[in-house]
Each structure stands twice: as C-alpha cells, then as structure tokens.
Amino acid sequence: MVAQRVLTEAEMRMLLPLLDNPTCCQKEVLQAGYYCTYEFLLQAMLSPDGKTSAQWNELVEAQRSRLHLASAKKAKRTEMRGVYNAIFGLRQKLEQLGLNIRVRRDGYYICKSD
After folding, report:
1. Model pLDDT for residues 13-56, shown as the tens digit of each residue
2. In what order do the strands lie in the sheet containing 99-104?
3. How far is CA 11 from the centre of its chain?
4. What is the pLDDT of residues 66-80, one digit of tens each?
5. Integer angstrom CA distances of residue 20 from 103, 108, 113
6. Across the strands, what pairs with 112?
7. Contacts for 90-93 with beta carbons within 8 Å, 24 or more apart?
8. How many angstroms from the chain centroid is the CA of residue 3?
9. Do 17 and 111 meet the contact criterion of CB atoms below 8 Å apart?
10. How far apart are the C-alpha atoms of 108 and 28, rounded to whole Å?
11. Which of 24, 23, 42, 21 is nearest to 33 (CA)?
C-alpha cells in the first residue's frame, strides 16, 4: 500500500525550496519560503520571469539580514521556530516515502533514509 499524506501549506513551502536546491537549501531560503505566500513561492521557483526572480532574491536577502541580526542577539532559534516546526512535520511525512531531511551547517537537504 502506498503511503499518502497531505502536506500543510507551511510544509509545502518548505518542500519546494528543498526540491529546488537538493544538495543544500540555505536557512534564509527556507525562511523566505515560510514568510512569502504560497502563490509567490510557486512563481519564484517555477517561473522564468526575471521580475519574480529579483523579488525572490530581495526577500531571501532580507531574511538573511534578519537571521544575522537574530543570531547576534542569540535569538536565531526563536526566529526560525516556524521553519523548524514545518520541517519537523515534513520530515515525519517524508520518512514514510524513504526520504529524510538532514541538517548541514548552512542549511538542509533531502536524502534517502538509512
């Protein structure tokens, strides 16, 4: 029987950047995906439109600055709480498909489960 689980919108917003950057998705990219609308995220990931790409890059840069400030204040974990919660739920659902989300120093990546 095939495992089937419906993803929440937040989990889907985490999955798309992870699939777009399979070797390592930076935390700033996941944070941007968490805060932008789902429709905009789809456009940014799938559209060749340069305007959308520029807006996406600005959003990622803003999140990079935000996380840098949070890190300096020792509040990075608080700032990333929404992303961490979405990753946790997504990780549980992907495990049923033989996939796992692993942490690297600068981000996350998807791999086959051990």
Report:
1. 999 999 999 899 999 999 999 999 989 999 988 888 888 989 99
2. 25-26, 107-112, 99-104
3. 8
4. 999 999 999 999 999
5. 16, 12, 19
6. 99
7. 90/7, 90/11, 90/14, 90/15, 93/5, 93/7, 93/11
8. 23
9. no
10. 11
11. 42
